[in-house]
Amino acid sequence: MLKEHTSGPHFETGSENFGTHWLLKETDEPENIKPYICRECSFCTDNEMELNKHMKSRHKGRKVYSCELCIYTASNSGNLNYHVLSKHTGERPYKCDYCEHRARSSSYLKIHVRSKHTGEKPYKCNYCEFGTAHPNVLKTHIAAKHTGDKRYKCPQCDYCALHSGNLNYHISSKHSEEKPFKCQFCSYTAGHSSNLKLHMESKHLAEKPHKCPHCVYTTAHPGNFKVHIAANHSDDKRFKCKACDYSTAQAGNLKSHMLCNHANERPFKCELCPAEFIQPGRLKAHITSRHTEFKPYACELCDYKCAQQPALTRHMKRKHPTAVINKPKPVVSQPN
Questions:
Q1: How far apart are CA 221 and CA 102, in angstroms?
Q2: Which letter does DSSP use for residue 88 in this model?
Q3: Could you say which DSSP state residue 61 is in?
Q4: What are the pLDDT digits (tens) for 105-119?
Q5: How many Å apart are CA 205 and CA 203, to the nearest integer?
Q6: I need a labelling partner for 180 at 20 to 30 A (CA). Which of 57, 69, 154, 313 fits?
Q7: What is the pLDDT of residues 147-172, one digit of tens each?
Q8: DSSP string, 137-180
């Protein structure tokens, strides 16, 4: 079918923050990516025809890869393979060993496994501590943070971007008061639909049919359920702490354990007591639980109330170990 062929598709992310915006859809492809990449320069786009126009105007005379099923042409075989899979065949022959996810290529499957299950980030930046699961993300990071020509400059702060789309996202996220995406359950608003989706999943996702037989954990996603069982109720705990006897089934859990228990620096300090924390989220949880009366999580079996879901989970394990109930939702939504 293809006139030229190499291994799986190549893409880059359009996110300014790789740690928080590298999210996988129910399909193979991560959100906010630009999968069509020019190999002659740093241009990338999410539209295949835009890449065609770019190649014709900027790189005339270069080798062209043509699709036999339509008029599409590409600058490299990777983009042509991506086009054929996404536009013509729709095949997903690569199945994840951890969940029900299927991918169009071995490359996408590796990214899914690293992002969702193992936490592996083999591609490391030579200029800083940044790591990623995909080489093209590292390439974009280096260009954006260290070596690239950041021609798109924010008029309101020092932020610069390689691509106009990144600048537009930055301005709407950081400087715009317009937040058209509104939560139907609480007062939360967002500048982007992806942020609202994250809020809905974390705060208001109601139906969670997959219930753990060993604890109170429930989830809407079968893949997350398998990961939970492997991480919390499996004897296969291959990731071992070198400083103590802690072990876990997931690399991400070991990393969190190291940060919380064996890191010396605790830069996030509580202004109301001497407590210090490694992560800002833990400081926020501390303030909510120790210094406010906000306790939205209530036990269904007794009068116990608390500010954080993990505290209620611990209470259930200690006081009601035989009970299997739905993962409790807060009585009221937590203030933003």
A1: 14
A2: I
A3: T
A4: 777 788 888 877 887
A5: 6
A6: 154
A7: 766 677 888 887 777 777 778 778 87
A8: HHHHHHIIIIIS---EE-SSSS-EESSHHHHHHHHHHHT-----
